[in-house]
User: What shape does this take?
Amino acid sequence: MEKFYTVVVRRRRLILLLFLLAAGACLVLKSLVRVNYDVNKYLPAETASTVSLEVLREEFPGGIPNARVMVTGVTIPEALKVKAELAAAPGVEAVTWLDDAADVTVPLSAMDTDTLENYYRDGAALFTVTVSEDGYVNAVAALRAIAGEHGAVTGGAASQADSATGTMDEVALIGAFGVAFALVVLALTTTSWLEPLLVLAGLGVAVFINAGTNLIFGEISFVTNASGSILQMAVSLDYSVFLLHRFDECRKERPGDSGAAMVEALCRSTTSILSSGLTTVIGFLALVLMRFGLGRDMGLALAKGVGISLATAFFFVPSLLLCTLPLSDKLRHRPLLPGMDGFGRLVRRVTAPLAVVFALAIVPAYLASNANDFYYGSGQMYGEQSVYGRDTAAIEAVFGKSDTYVLMVPGRDTATQARLSADLHGLEHVKSVVSYVDMAGAEVPLEYLDGETLALLMSDDYSRMVLSVDVPAEGEETFALVEQVRAAAEKYYPGAYYLAGSGVSTYDLMDTVTSDLAKVNLVAIGAVFLVLLAAMRSLWLPVLLVLSIETAIWLNLSVPYFAGTPIFYITYLIISSIQLGATVDYAILMTDRYRENRAVLPKREALAATVSGTAVSILTSGSVLAVVGLLMGYLSSNRLLAQLGLLLGRGTLFSLGIVLFVLPGLLSMTDALTLGRRDTWERHMNEKGERI
Assistant: This one.
């Protein structure tokens, strides 16, 4: 190990150059990475709704309607002109309105009231629009321009367009605040004005390289794109901080030989940094096991990012520190933070009662964390304060909630289709059905319909039935309706029909992600346990550390339950692995330092010395992670990203509280199990030759 790091130190200028070239190249490559804003695309390929979409694309022109446009203050003739404008907008594949379901040349009083009010009410016209997947942003902008100041646009296309245009601006703002806060924290916890800039430079290089190398995936989700860089920076900060503090210690031991001091610092830091990094990587990689592809997308990108951050901490940051050492020494200053001895003594006094509170909270926190209400899809992604939320509320105030399902059944047996259509019309939440048998009648020969219209309703192998339903994209009513429509289709076409739509995909998404939870959590916990077992050579310590962080996770996830706030299930699933992987590092550092101090000090003194000696390092990394998460939570208009940030920030605070105030007491109370045989521990410490 020493020989390897000696080569690293000697080749520091070459290493700097290679990393900077890689970062520059990856900064260019980042623009080539495609971003996917549709979470439903991450459903498994074999999912019923995913298969249905593929069949729909193969059999019929256009896709499923994914936008609703309301234009106010128009007459029937004016609405027909607006329909033509909408159809001519860029990226628009199809527009459906009243004239597709009824004869608009007859007086309104002669029309079926339910059919009329689905499309035209109180001078407002509601159009159903199909937008091509590769043109959401431009198409939605055009739709909003046509709708006018008092109009509104909603639907999946509008949601994804808003995500594409607004998310990255917010991420840039969050990143700027996060970097500024990290600079302040690092300035307080280091002894040179240059060192905070060097640490952030190392993080920046790692973030740029990771963002550019995402090109190997071809495409990443907007969740990964928006949160990946911020999370990578926040969870990787402690690697460089640990090394920096260790380098300062080694320089005092080897004055005048900075190269040898860096080699020594790297040798002493390798085990602790690698253990911390490996547990974080495992936490992210556990997401790869999700059947829902968003987990794989985030897991691979974040695990790769942490791996790159580790490489940066071991190669780029040491090289940068050594090359800038003369300037860094000139900018030395006194420590800005007071000593932590008083804090260590405070923790020593409160650990016993807090340990009791911790023990009492475990079971209620676990039960509450598993009793939350959830959102499964993207229908609740934007609140009423956003443009999308206001438009959705405006349309629903006039026309109510609505979604569109497409049912495809085999063959051209119009008699059977007519019976199915009658059953569908009888379902409570089905407002209308557009199909061949509804428009022309089962008794009308197919050749009497013009080819263009027939192509929309029938292919060589399937007939298409378009259902307008008055339910939201998800919820109990929605899921019940999906089951009813599938049951009706199964009655006449057992195992041979296809059903697609936003609510249908959300139903399948619910089925998929709920089955992932136990698997992902068990693998993450088990893998982290094994890493800790190998690193600490103790059976008790991995149990204690994992239980401590898992309790922090349960406390974090119990807050929405007690507040009565539904949470996105995707966020609920992801945050467990992220919080475990990102904050178990603090528990590792605390435990290693306690075992070291306990080798030479009595229990109470060792406890206080451990807390005072680790508090700065833990708070440096933990405070940045918490603040970055909370910034994402309060600044992002995308509620899924906001919730992910809020849970990360709050979860980090719970982890910090348990690690700083509870874990030291638990280690002390279980001293015999924590240390094992002291002679074994001391021999182990001597063989490692390192102090955490």
